[in-house]
Amino acid sequence: MSDLTFQFESVRAVIAEPNWPDLIREHFEESAQHAGAVQIDPDYQRYIACNDIGTFRCWTARHEGRLVGYLGLWVETHPHFRRTLRACDDLYMLAPEFRRGFNGYNMFRSCFASLKASGVKMIMIHSQHSLDLSKLMERLGLTPAETLWSGML
Predict the structure, then answer these.
(1) What is the pLDDT of residue 34?
(2) Less Cβ around it within 10 Å: N or C end of the chain?
């Protein structure tokens, strides 16, 4: 069950997958910090528009052609670093039945290699305290940078 393939795909292709609604629902049920206060309601047209101009990219994991994971990234310069192309995660998920061995590591590592080849110099990945991925991030060569605080107003 570890024969996964990875690649960038268009947002249009990903959200057209028959199992996309189940994956995104499962993702938010597992990770949404304020699930009772806010409803999942993705602005797919905005994601598509950003994907079309290259500022949003979707890395996918597939098993026998079936979508089993994804890593959505905002890829752009920042006003503080206008000459440095960077990627910052929006969301990522790997179906639970594939979270073993090196599948998660390979999903991120292969994505990072592809980003680097396209000129990205900096990567930022959020890791929720409730789903601690510190060991994985450290294995990928990342270091803790800051803490993100969240609350409802």
Answers:
(1) 66
(2) C
